[in-house]
Amino acid sequence: MNPATDFYRGEVPSSSPHGQVPNPREAPAKITIDINELKDYNRFRVLYTRIAKLGEGGDGAVYAYEDRSTKAVVAVKTAHGDWRAPSDTLMKEASNLQLLGKHDHIVEMLSYSVNFLPRPPAIFLPLCEFGDLYCYKKKLWKQQRKPRTSEVTIWKLLKDMSLALNFIHNHNKQRACYIHHDLKPGNILVTFPAGGDRNRVPVEPVFKLTDFSRMREFPISPDADADKDWHGCGTPEYAPSASEQANVRPSGDIWSLGATLQDFALNIAPTQSRESFIRARRAQGKQCPRYNENSSWHDISWRSLIPTRYRPLNADIAELKTKHDVPVLPPSFENSYRPYSTQLSVWYQALWNPNEVERISAATLVRECVPLIDGYIAIAKSMEHVDQCFDRARKLREQTRRRQAGRPLLPAKRVQARKPPSYEGNEWDSQ
What is the pTM for the complete model shown? Predict the structure, then answer.
């Protein structure tokens, strides 16, 4: 594996628990699912058949199951292992989803089964046709034939996740709020908007937050220290600084949202590059893996030491490389990249405030940013339409120039001067 591909996002990461999905264009229209058929494993295994593995993560694997008669498809999250002891992690996730209830931008739990085999429980979720952010972006880029994420889509992601986090962080104002604790591209699923064209990948899809196995109550309960999963902050590449992780707040989810937006827009890991990390460690007289020692770089102990890194979205390629620690980008991405708007970069930067107390909250985002996003999307659509017109004009000029350069010059015709007629008009007919 090329170390550069760990920094620049190429293919979908194999660790993504919600990676591949059946072709969304072939997915049947939504059909009402009988919840009772899901709860009892003995009924479920008779009525449903497994058709695809959607992905695999640290907590378990996700499969697509299809109803043999109605062709309805559900996603089923199951635990690793083939022993009968229930998975505490999935039981906790099922309990957390029940606690939260329904929200437009949180993946709904249809039901769960406590007797699912080979290892209970199983959590039943609606199928999100485009998988996670990695899969969705790959399909979108393939459709538009260039590796650039539209600003329209980034605004929509910011809007949907702001609404989801506000629902979690302010779920019960009289008692306590909750922290997702592992927001990242692999935990955001993508589906068609209502009434959307199912023959195209939507630029404005619906984004839904998933994987609530690490959700925690805030303020932290006194017995939280006994919870072995509490310490740390989800996935290291999207977590705030180590000092902030010692006292986790809802603001940690906001930081993770900023890191997710950077990954989604720039298609690079939102962390310090290997080159910079190695230089910093050597300057401090500390050890670090060799640049090409990929197995060490993938180890959680080293991943946890590499800090996340803010990079502006309105900087051009040259500035990103010289000032913001972006060492390697494929030529195809550089040629397609355009800096994003200042408005987007300002709201995005607010997510990265290093002061966790002063960092913008989900409630503020919903109150002050979300109402403006539809207007920002309209402006972004107009600007991208103008850019497309200029791109078409540029391509036409290049094609014309190439045709003219390859066309041989025609020989000049020799023109013979005709003898002018006399003043009286004599000899005119003879010419």
Answer: 0.85
